[in-house]
Specification:
Elements: E1 18-22, H1 26-32, H2 37-58, E2 62-69, H3 77-100, E3 103-108, H4 116-128, E4 135-143, H5 145-159, H6 172-176, E5 189-192, E6 211-214, H7 224-235, H8 245-253
Parallel strand pairs: 1-2, 1-5, 2-4, 3-4, 5-6
Bound molecules: 3-methylbut-3-enyl trihydrogen diphosphate (2 copies) and magnesium ion.
C-alpha cells in the first residue's frame, strides 16, 4: 500500500514522483480569442499530450489530470456534451500513442453517470494499457474529493461491518486503502493553471502534504517549458512534513 504522509515521512526525490494537475482556463483562453469556450477544451487536448510526454521524459511515475469535476455537470448542456464527445474522441485516438509511450491509463470518478459507449471505451483503454508501467496516467472524470472519501467509507463499512459497533478501530489506513488512488503515492506536486488558487474538490484527502503550484497560464498555453518551470520550483521546496528546518538539515548532513 502507498505510504501516507501523515503516518510516515515519504522519501523525496528531485523530480516529483506524482504530479496532479487541475487543467483550468480553457474557457478564458477561447474567450480571449473570441472563440466559443468549447474551442478552448478542444485545444486543451494538445497540452495533455505535451504534459504526458514531458512527464514521461522527466521520470515522473504518476500523472493525474482533473478533466471533469462532479460539479461540472452544472455547466450548460451543450458544453457538457462537447466535453463528453472530446473524451470519447481522445480515448479512440490516443490509446495507441499511450501504448508507444509505455503509459498505463486509468480513469477515476463516478463513471456510472457516463453513457455506456464512454464507459466501454474506458474499460477497453484501461485493459489495453494495463501492462504498462513507465508512467501511470490517471484521468479524474466525474470526480470529486468528497465523493472519493464517501465511496471509500462505504466500501470500508461493507468490508468490515464490525466497525459499526466499534468505530474506534477505524484508523487512517483502514479508510485510505479504499480511496480511488490507493495504489499510487500521494501527489508531490499539485499544479493549477488558469490563475485561480483553489482546490475545487480535487484530491482533497491525498493533497494533505502536497506542494501547491499555481500558474496564471491558461491550460491550452501550458507548454512543456511551463511544466519544467513548475518542476524547478518544486525542486527548491523544503518539504518538512511537520518537522523543523533544523531537523531536516541535521538529517541530510548526518
Ligand atoms: C477547465 O477549463 C476545463 C474543465 C473544467 C472541463 P474551464 O472550462 O474551467 O475554463 P475557464 O476556467 O472557464 O476559463
Ligand atoms: C476544476 O475547474 C475542474 C477541472 C479542471 C476539471 P473548474 O473551472 O470547474 O473549477 P471552479 O468551478 O472554477 O472552481
Ligand atoms: Mg475553470
Amino acid at each position: 500500500m502507498a505510504i501516507s504522509s501523515t503516518i510516515d515521512i515519504p522519501v523525496i526525490s528531485e523530480v516529483p514522483k506524482h504530479v496532479a494537475i487541475i487543467m483550468d482556463g480553457n474557457g478564458r483562453w477561447a474567450a480571449k480569442r473570441f472563440l466559443p469556450r468549447t474551442a478552448g477544451h478542444a485545444r486543451g487536448v494538445q497540452s495533455v499530450r505535451a504534459a504526458v510526454e514531458t512527464c514521461g521524459k522527466m521520470g515522473v511515475r504518476y500523472l493525474t489530470l482533473f478533466a471533469f469535476s462532479s460539479e461540472n455537470w452544472r455547466r450548460p448542456a451543450d458544453e457538457v456534451s462537447l466535453l463528453m464527445r472530446l473524451f470519447v474522441q481522445a480515448l479512440e485516438r490516443e490509446v495507441s500513442r499511450l501504448l508507444d509511450q509505455g503509459v498505463r491509463l486509468r480513469v477515476i470518478g463516478d463513471l456510472s453517470a457516463f453513457e455506456p459507449k464512454l464507459q466501454e471505451l474506458i474499460v477497453q483503454a484501461q485493459a489495453k494499457t494495463a501492462h504498462n508501467d513507465q508512467l501511470h496516467l490517471t484521468i479524474a472524470a466525474n470526480y470529486g474529493g468528497r465523493w472519493d472519501i464517501l465511496q471509500a467509507m462505504k466500501k470500508m463499512m461493507l468490508a468490515h461491518p464490525e466497525y459499526g459497533a466499534d468505530p474506534g478501530r477505524i484508523d487512517e489506513s483502514a479508510l485510505s486503502e479504499h480511496l480511488s488512488m490507493s495504489w499510487a503515492p500521494e501527489p508531490d506536486l499539485f499544479i493549477r493553471t488558469g490563475g485561480e488558487q483553489r482546490v475545487s474538490n480535487f484530491l482533497i484527502w491525498q493533497l494533505a502534504y502536497t506542494e501547491l503550484f499555481f500558474s496564471d497560464c491558461y491550460w491550452p498555453d501550458f507548454s512543456a517549458e511551463e511544466l519544467k518551470n513548475a518542476f524547478e520550483w518544486y525542486r527548491h521546496r523544503e518539504r518538512r512534513f511537520g518537522r523543523t528546518s533544523a531537523q531536516l538539515q541535521s538529517h541530510t548532513t548526518s
